[in-house]
Amino acid sequence: MMRRVRGVAAPPPAERADRRAPQKKKDGAERVDRRAPQKKKDGGVKTSSLFKHNPDIPALLSPVVSQVKEKIFTSDSFSDMDLHPHLVATLNKVLNVSTVTSVQKQTMPVLLSGRDAVVRSQTGSGKTLAYAVPVVQSLQALQQKVSRSDGPLAVVIVPTRELAQQTFQTFQKLLKPFTWIVPGVLMGGEKRKSEKARLRKGINILVSTPGRLVDHIKNTLVIAFSSVRWLILDEADRILDLGFEKDLTVILNSLNSTGPSRQNVLLSATLSQGVTRLADVCLNDPVTINVSGPASSDLTAPATDPGSADQPESFTLPEALQQFVVVVPSKVRLVCLAAFILHKCKFSKNNKLIVFTSSCEAVEFLHAIFTAVLSTNQKPPLSFLRLHGNMKQEDRTEVFKEFSVSQSGVLLCTDVAARGLHLPAVTWIIQFTPPTAAAEYVHRVGRTARIGGRGSSLLFLTPAETAFTTELANHNISLSEMKLEDILSSLMMDDTFKGRGRYHSQSSSKALEQETRERATVLQTEFENFVHSDAQSLQNAKKALQSFLRSYTTFPAPLKHIFHIKHLHLGHTAKSFGLRDAPQGLSAPGGGEEQEEGQPEERGGRRKRLCQQGGESAEI
Ligand code: ADP
Ligand code: MG
Question: Which residues are in the DEAD-box RNA helicase Q domain (predicted)?
Answer without folding.
Answer: 76-105
